[in-house]
Amino acid sequence: MLSEFDIIQRYFYRAAPGAVLGIGDDAALIQPSAGMELAISTDVLVSGQHFFADADPRGLGHKSLAVNLSDMAAMGARPRWATLSLALPTNMARENDKWLEAFSDGFFNLADAYQVDLIGGDTTKGPLTICVTIIGEVARGKALRRSGARSGDDIWISGHLGDAALALAHQQGHIALEPREIDACLPALNMPTPRVGLGQRLIGLARSAIDISDGLLADLGHILKCSKASAIISLPDINCSAPLRRCLPHPLALKCLLAGGDDYELCFSAARSKRAKIETLSRELGLPLTRVGKIGMGEGLVVLDAAGDAVTLETTGYDHFRA
Ligand code: ADP
Ligand code: MG
Fold first, then answer.
1. How confident is the model at residue 206 (pLDDT cuts 50, 70, 90)?
2. Cβ(11) – ligand 1 distance below 6 Å
3. What is the rounded CA–CA span in Å between residue 300 and residue 287?
4. Distance in Å, CA 70 to ligand 2 centroid
5. Phi, psi values for residue 232, rounded to 5°
6. Whose CA is nearest to atom 11 of ligand 1?
7. Res 322: pLDDT
8. What is the position in ligand 1's atom list of the atom closest to the CA of 120?
9. The pLDDT value given to residue 85
10. Would you say the CB of residue 123 lies under 6 angstroms from ligand 1?
11. Residue 323 banded pLDDT, cuts 50, 70, 90
12. Fewer CB within 10 Å of terminal CB in the chain, N or C?
């Protein structure tokens, strides 16, 4: 059996070139760059709740960091440092068990891609639980907030929505995808790509932003609430993959698209005058940025179908404490 110290040393200890002091003391030390604010966010992933107990550990390592990087993207922040707290069942701490190796590989591959330093954490025995805290930097007063949307803004979405939820629905036997369709959708569920580059480039262009983790309706709903605004969305304008389009108008596919969750795309609002710049940015990043609706006065969120009729859904998004 590996000791707590062995686990940290073997799988998580790394030099942290971007920190004053990394793993190994009672606290890490970081020095923010001049003129920057720190952006801090944390997410807990619990076995059986956020992922299957037998989920691929490499994917989990990737995803536990990716969901936090996505929060940095939504603020327009550059991610720099992370901490990782793990509760592990005893079997994963056995000498011959490969779980930790694959998990840390998945984590560090993504961390290295964004030059994020792991600077600390905690390791304990318990039901598998993964908690990552991310710290990033953003120029003073420039962070993208949920509260900045104004009436008349365009509503934009990056990438396409619904694939992660569709893959999960397939795995749970609720919808049947063909083998090549599941191959196309699974990466969105297991290895999401956080839109870190986009987020930083949206500073000065977007007026509000959020990352879509609980479904478009729920997350756009947060922007509307914080901005005291309403929105109209056009369903046919929402970018979705070929497998999802094939499944529409199946009610479950519609739910995946609008309220599925786990998308980790950005939803943002921007003045009409920024359209050309946003379209140029989309080409530069090689990432679809699609206009799907408009911000209005008052309150409410309406989705219109191709015929101009309001679309109704039973649920608007994932809420852990809802019955
Ligand atoms: P303490 O007793 O002060 O909590 P620990 O023995 O728990 O210290 O941790 C020793 C060092 O290892 C600390 O710097 C801590 O931040 C780091 N650490 C512990 N667990 C992890 C982990 N899972 N990932 C990264 N760093 C970790
Ligand atoms: Mg500790």
1. very high
2. no
3. 29
4. 26
5. -120, 130
6. 24
7. 55
8. 16
9. 98
10. yes
11. very low
12. C
Residue 183 CB less than 6 A away from ligand 1: no
Dihedral sign for Cα atoms in the order 152, 158, 160, 162: negative
Q: Are residues 211 and 128 in the same domain?
A: no
- Rounded mean pLDDT, 163-177: 95
Nearest to 118 by CA among 74, 68, 77, 70: 68
- Are residues 97 and 65 located together in one domain of the fold? yes
Number of domains observed in the structure of the chain: 2
Token pair 């309406």 is found at: 302
Beta strands per DSSP E along the chain: 36-46, 78-88, 117-125, 129-139, 154-158, 206-212, 230-234, 265-270, 289-296, 300-304
Note whether 130 and 190 are same-domain residues: no
Q: Which atom of ligand 1 is nearest to the CA of 28?
A: 14
CB atoms closer than 10 angstroms to residue 96: 4
Residues 96 and 221 in one domain: no
Q: Is the preceding peptide bond at 249 cis, omega within 30 degrees of 0?
A: yes
User: What pLDDT, in 10s, does the model give residues 116-130?
Assistant: 999 999 999 999 999
Looking at ligand 1, which atom is closest to the CA of residue 5?
A: 6
First-to-last C-alpha distance (Å) of the chain: 40
Shared domain check, 157 and 118:
no
Please give the structure tokens belonging to residue 155.
């509503």
pTM, whole model, 2 decimals? 0.95
Q: What are phi and psi of 25, to 5 degrees?
A: -115, -170
**Has residue 315 been placed in a domain?**
no
Report yes or no on 172 lying in a domain: yes
Q: From the CB of 200, is ligand 1 less than 6 Å away?
A: no
- Any ligand 1 atom below 6 A from CB of 22: no
CA neighbor of 129 nearest in space, from 67, 60, 212, 28:
60
Q: Is the CB of 121 under 6 A from ligand 1?
A: yes
Query: What is the domain range of residue 124?
Result: 4-139
Provide the token pair at 137: 């930097």
